[in-house]
Write a structure and sequence with these properties.
It is built from 17 helices and 13 strands. The chain has 434 residues and is an alpha/beta fold.
């Protein structure tokens, strides 16, 4: 079997066999297939696509290209959630302690942010002392003792994905449904999760720009999960405007804390409730969606989720004083409002532009490995459908560099559109695919 023949078959539109896919994945990880051939194969997949059978075979080959965790020794059933990325998406910080407080162990390996899409690990590192570099043994012990763990992904899990993703990023092959689906699902299978809810974002601030593309990706990942014996469903959620009000690492941690204490923004609270309730339902903890939602709302209202959050952060080395007093989180030197140039209703708030402004401020990175500033970001005061008077603050910019603040201000002003008539805000949740 030769790599060049596999590339040619896919280039010509033929489906690959399980053996061909396994050969190619193994050779890519071991180094016997060079980067230029991997890049050619990725482009062939991007152009010709893959059948569901091929995508399942690719996912499994990637999942088993390295270590696969067996969490059954520490918990009979574990749950997880995965977001396809967005602006202001700090949902793990709220959903994880909710479901853990209801007796569902959540074992999550997360990544860092790239470009406009913030990473959960970056947010958690805003908390002094929080450890993201747990060993496999520590990861399992945290699940066993506390029922909740969120750590960085180890290099031993699905190494084929790391190899492919690095090349996709520089070969213009990122927006391929089979490659996106296999990337996400291979890591989740390797991490040993039993129940997975996918939070698939769609809109200006998401990788999936159209509802059709988002649904296709969600259905593909649900199909993969079913084929490998996992319980998987997907929530299709809007990302035309940022989720919640805070965008930026420490600012988003504070908003998550506010939410767990009953003071969160309505759209963010509702989103977290929907996803958490779907996890509870899918795991069999509730008989239906209505009961699952009631359980989630009770965990929030009675403070059980907040107590679990504090326990979780402290167990992973985080300073309890910081989460109990968010003023101890990293603070930006400058805080400046952006004033509205006119009166009217906000008709558009482009999430991508807000996300890129946060990157300009230093809250995100353009290249993997770049340092970030945990203290900077944006807090919105107005969203789509809100009325604003001329010179009323649209948002507050948090910055440590005045030149970056000025550049971000210009970009943020372009994120807003106004209208004389009151517009309807976009739907928060479009569909749940089961």
């Amino acid at each position: 079997m030769r790599a060049v023949d596999i590339i040619a078959r896919k280039r010509d539109g033929f489906p690959l066999t399980k053996e061909e896919i396994e050969f190619f994945v193994k050779g890519s990880v071991e180094g016997s297939i060079p980067d230029y051939q991997i890049s050619a194969w990725l482009m062939a997949v991007y152009l010709k696509g893959m059948t569901i059978r091929e995508t399942v075979d690719l996912t499994l080959a990637m999942a088993f290209s390295g270590e696969v965790l067996d969490l059954k020794e520490v918990a009979p059933l574990t749950v997880d959630k995965h977001s396809t990325g967005g602006v202001g998406d700090k949902t793990t910080l709220v959903i994880a302690p909710i479901v853990a407080s209801l007796g569902l162990p959540i074992a999550k390996m997360s990544g860092r942010g790239l470009s406009f899409s913030g990473g959960t690990i970056d947010k958690l590192e805003s908390i002094r002392g929080y450890r993201v570099d747990l060993s496999v043994e520590e990861f399992k012990r945290q699940v066993s003792e506390h029922g909740i763990v969120v750590s960085g992904q180890t290099a031993q899990l699905a190494p084929a994905d790391a190899k492919f993703y690095a090349l996709r990023d520089v070969t213009a092959t990122v927006p391929s449904l089979p490659l996106i689906a296999s990337s996400i699902m291979s890591k989740k299978i390797a991490a040993g999760t039993d129940v997975l809810v996918l939070d698939v974002k769609v809109g200006k601030g998401a990788f999936m720009k159209t509802l059709e593309d988002a649904k296709n990706l969600a259905r593909l990942m649900v199909d993969i999960g079913r084929d490998v014996g996992k319980r998987v469903s997907a929530v299709i959620a809007d990302m035309n405007q940022p989720l919640g009000l805070a965008v930026g690492n420490a600012l988003e941690v504070k908003e998550a804390i506010d939410t767990l204490q009953g003071r969160g923004p309505q759209d963010f609270v509702e989103h977290c409730i929907v996803v958490a309730a779907e996890i509870v339902r899918l795991a069999g903890k509730a008989r239906d969606s209505r009961q699952a939602r009631s359980m989630v709302e009770k965990a929030l209202k009675e403070g059980k989720a907040w107590e679990k959050f504090v326990e979780w952060i402290e167990a992973q080395g985080g300073d309890r004083a910081v989460v109990e007093d968010p003023s101890l989180l990293p603070q930006a030197r400058y805080q400046e409002p952006l004033l509205s140039p006119r009166s009217g209703y906000i008709s558009e708030l482009n999430a991508m532009e807000v996300g890129m402004a946060a990157v300009i401020l230093g809250a995100g990175r353009e290249k993997k490995g770049e340092p970030i500033d945990h203290s900077v970001g944006i807090v919105l005061h107005k969203k789509i459908g809100n009325y604003v008077e001329k010179n009323e603050p649209l948002l507050t910019i948090y910055a440590n560099d005045l030149s970056r603040l000025e550049e971000a201000r210009k970009r943020l002003l372009g994120a807003f559109s106004w209208s004389e008539m009151e517009p309807s805000p976009p739907p928060l949740i479009y569909e749940v695919i089961r």
